[in-house]
Amino acid sequence: MVVLENRVKETNADSIIKKVFSTWKWIANYDAAPGDKKALWEDMRGTITGISGPSVMVGDYNTILTSEDRVQGNGVQEFEVRDFKEFILDVGLTELRTEFEDTVKQYWIKVSNGNAMFKVWNKLKLLTVELKQLNSLEFNNIGHKIQAPRSKLEGIQVQILGPVNDSEIIAQEKVIKMELAKWLEVEESILKQKSRIKWLKLGDLNTAYFHACIKNRQETNHIGSLVDSAGQLLQSPTKVELEMLNFCKLLLGTSEAQIPAINTQVMQQGDMLSRQQQMQLIRTVIGGEIKQAIQD
After folding, report:
1. How far is it, in rounded angstroms, from Cα 158 to Cα 155?
2. 196-148-76 Cα angle (round to 5)
3. What confidence tens digit (pLDDT) does each residue in 251-273 have?
4. 3-class DSSP assignment, residue 12
5. pTM of this prediction?
6. 172 with 156: CB under 8 angstroms?
7. In this predicted structure, which of 12-26, 82-96, 156-170, 191-205 has the lowest mean pLDDT?
8. What phi, psi does 3 have (nearest 5°)?
9. I want to staple 41 with a disulfide (CB 3.0 to 4.6 A). Which of 35, 53, 85, 87 is the partner?
């Protein structure tokens, strides 16, 4: 299955798709609101989850997955990538790297004999060996590839806290952080794919395993009991709910209908700051003072 992003208008879609992909079965999501990426991910999640064969998604989708996807590597906020990242992990997709594309292109342009289907089959067979080697080269020993930038990052952060602190060290920290984040995402994707492979082998054919997975997930997301401040074990859903509400109220406090105002006359009778002291309080804090405060 292939998911393809396009710029074709809905009125022209039927004729163009039939002309370009005449032997393909296809569906479109023109009903989705423009710019509603979350709806797009949900739609595609339902489509991809329902199949067990290979899937390819092609397009930029006007969104990013990591800071490397953004020009000049500017910082990426979690809310910007949360929905897209969850979609990628949920369906077990992996971003194609440049090395993968170069390897496929190298074998795809080779000339082979036979009919069209045999040519495709032969190229895929040759690619299998190369892609296995590429996968082993890129993603073997992922733990070491995570530990290496993590150790570098710890060393750089120690230097930043030291007496010497320049922009070059800060720039190095940013680069190492991006590298570490990349390999952590690769590890997460690999684990997700391994989990999905296990599910395909066991989940559809073994109902006991299927229900065990469901039960384990429900238990992970469920709070069945609590111990209150008096040390009493609460197991009733009503008591657990009440205890959580009381805890949050105690933590956050309650609202007041009216807050008493400060009596300015009483305040003026006490000690007051001089104009110099007032200006000292509102002056701009410099970087050296922040560093000194942290070191102290």
Report:
1. 5
2. 65
3. 887 777 777 777 777 777 777 78
4. helix
5. 0.37
6. yes
7. 191-205
8. -105, 115
9. 87
